[in-house]
Amino acid sequence: MLGYRNKNAVRANALNRWRVRAALRSLDPSLDRSVLVCSGGSRHATVPEAVLLARYATAERGFTGTVRLDERSRSTWQNIENVIPLVEDVDQIKIVSNPLHALKGRLYLHRLRPDLGERLVRAADYRPGEALPLTPFFAVYGLRDLVRLRRNRAAALRAR
């Protein structure tokens, strides 16, 4: 689960709480065990986003399974890079965020570790109509990032 800027050091913000709920509904109850990986450092607060995500999942949403944390990441690339050691032993990987941000994370994982990219499965982080007022913001923000990612990839290919 990818965190989002959380200026409050006491409680996860609304977007991070939504991401926790999406992550928890993405868990497959038919599996013997699930691992919840929370990722995100802190730029503005004293408590990393990963800690706030984990705290909300366990204390407020009742998750009792294994939780692993990446408390250092400050970008999506770092989120994916830093969680690789935390997910190498799992059979399925679900990246949870808003849909375009999760797509970006999946692309990064495929680029960094194609073998782990093969273990990716879709999360339940999209429900039609959910977070409807925020959808245009997420679309513009996410598409801008994907265009930038594509430009960077094209530049790298030209440099070869």
UniProtKB/TrEMBL annotation:
Q: Name one Pfam family in it.
A: DUF218
Under InterPro entries, the record lists: DUF218
- Reading the lineage from the top rank, the first entry is Bacteria
Q: Which residues form the DUF218 domain?
A: 14-112
Q: What is this protein identified as?
A: DUF218 domain-containing protein
Q: Specify the species.
A: Prauserella muralis
Q: What is the lineage of its organism?
A: Bacteria, Bacillati, Actinomycetota, Actinomycetes, Pseudonocardiales
